[in-house]
Amino acid sequence: MRRYALRRLRADDGLTLLETVVALLVFSLIMGGLAGSMTLLARTAAVNKARSIAVSLAQKYIEEARAKGGTNVQLCPGTSPPPPQTVPSFNGQTNLTMAIATQTTSTCLTYQKTKSVGSYSYTVTTQVMQDGQPGTTIAGQPIVEKYLDVVLTWTAPKPGSYELSTVLNNNTTITATEATGLQFDMQDGSGNKIGTATVTWHFKVCASTVTCNGSQTNVLQEGDTQENGQPLVTMAAGTYNCFLDNTNASGWVPNATKNPANYTLDMTNGTISGPCTVTSGQVLDWITYWQPIGSCAYSSTTKGGLNVYVVDQNGTPVKNASVTISPVTGTGTYAAKPSGNGSATAGYYASFTGLPDDFYYYNVDLTGYNSVTNLGPACVAGTKVTTAKASITSSSGCATTGNNGNVTVTVTDASGVKVGNNSTVGLFNATTGAWVAVGKTTAGVVTKTGVPSGAYYLLVSDSTTTGAAVNGVTQYKYDGSGAIGPLCVADTTAAPNGNAMSATLQPYQTNQCPDTNSNGTLNVTVMDGAGHAVGNAPVQYINIDAIGAPQPGATVKSNATTGAASLGSRSYDPYLIIGNSPAATQATGYFMTLGATCVNANPKNYTINLNGYATVLVGVDNESAPIKTYNIVITDSTPQQNQTTQSLTVIQGSSNAVSATFSHLPTGTGYNLAVYSATDTGDNGSLVCSGTYDWTGVTTYPNANNGTPPTCVDSSS
Description:
Elements: H1 2-11, H2 17-68, E1 96-98, E2 112-117, E3 120-131, E4 135-136, E5 142-143, E6 145-154, E7 160-169, E8 174-178, E9 181-187, E10 200-207, E11 221-224, E12 233-234, E13 238-248, E14 252-254, E15 264-266, E16 271-278, E17 283-292, E18 299-311, E19 322-327, E20 337-338, E21 341-343, E22 347-365, E23 369-370, E24 372-380, E25 385-391, E26 393-394, E27 404-413, E28 423-429, E29 435-440, E30 445-452, E31 454-462, E32 484-489, E33 499-505, E34 519-527, E35 538-543, E36 556-557, E37 564-571, E38 574-579, E39 593-598, E40 604-609, E41 613-622, E42 627-635, E43 643-651, E44 658-666, E45 668-677, E46 686-695, E47 700-701, E48 712-714
């Protein structure tokens, strides 16, 4: 009995502390899951309710418009914000005008208003558009057709929109259909809409097979956003490429971390592009995320990256250009990187990693190209890699990509008849001086593969004779071609079918250079444009009529003091003289110069004047907007009016003033310099500063003795 009572007493003791804690833990886990599910269900219900209310309101406004009659429906004037005056497009119509009453009446509709239903708040935008080319009835009466578009947008509990469109005519018939298309939704990093009536973006919609960018003209739709991303861009169901740039929203740059991975962000030019898919009966909100300029402020703790893609003036990727970067705010220094990553199809780029958040300018340099400096600035923010692009122009006008191309040369006489099998063809690189032996023609044609891309002079000689020698001098049929060019050799990517060149040979002795068995000593003096001797300049010659060997002779350097160089005893023939920049002055800038002379005396003295490069720094101080892009155009005084252009993006404030470097301007007088605001209208934008300058020295302007050109200060409002 005692044992039973004891057992019973223990059985009535209840749960232990451990058992109680475990039970409470299990209960809390179950309730926590239920609470999360309940929260999600409540949010989903709230989102659905917000849309349901929007649908009801849109239908209500449509019915109210029906009651007013198609003839009477117009927008009220003088509202805030006012209705837009133009309509980019609607339902494929491009000839529509906004129907706005001359005065407020009981039948006019408010362009934009706020409507609250319970805890839900909506922005209601109404547009009434009228066909600018009305049709007629079978009886010849005009049909006044109007389009009524009602858009409701809301921000809570989740941003959304609903649109309903209607067609009305003067017979008051009405057909309502749900719109199909897209609208642009620009948001900050917290998901708040940032489009306003004054801060707008330029948009383009392109076919899915077309690259949508700032220069693309093959577009399906194009225009400017209005407040909150309006207007609706009517598109048929399908997949497209969409594009936005911050032309009128320069205080905002693409958010480097929030946008989808398949969007292309150009931080330098302030653009975002990517795929956009439109579903039938629905309006796509194409959401892009932007960040204020200040978000690129210097931070030593957050590290991102910068890839700088390099292309030539034709958009062809350029390999192994030297790229350097410099921060706007920070003080870090970064070693130059080559544009060696990537491929000829995807593009070549220089990659910089571990960069603190900041704006970065970047410079590109490559032999044979005009250097570009202070491009950008590119915004590196967060941990993502920012992509930027640099375009460099070949100093010869020809692309030097680092890849090879193929060349086919056709040689004809003055009548256009191919000359046969006796022509020897060569190419002389106009930048490096390298010689490429193309070979002998077969039936007037010769092909050479594997020629490095770049600029070349074409030279042809021919060994066809016309009969017996006269006074011991062989009588040939043709003169040599001389230097033809410079001609461009593009690589196989840019010219898959090869590069076609041609030379026309004139009858023998047309050049009037006597062909005898005599020789004369050829002496060359190398001078600069101002008549000063240039020492240590490499000098070469090419005998234009040399049979079977129209190629450069040995290089001789000019005397360090007098600039004189002796090219030895040469036969009486026409010669091409090549003068180049002394190695010691390569940085300051002479460039290869060609001359021609006829050795017809002993000695034969010839002077070649080397052309030079001036380096010009053009400063821009932006005191006008948070960030602004400028086009700097330099035009020379030649009859061709050659132009050199650079774009420069400058952050506001005199401490951020930067300079564009024009490093390969041929020395000369009468240069016109003009600085334009690229964000304004016009071919180059609106003119900010201009002036005429002489840059005659192989030096850098401005310098201690020459203060031109000045810094251009933009203080426009």
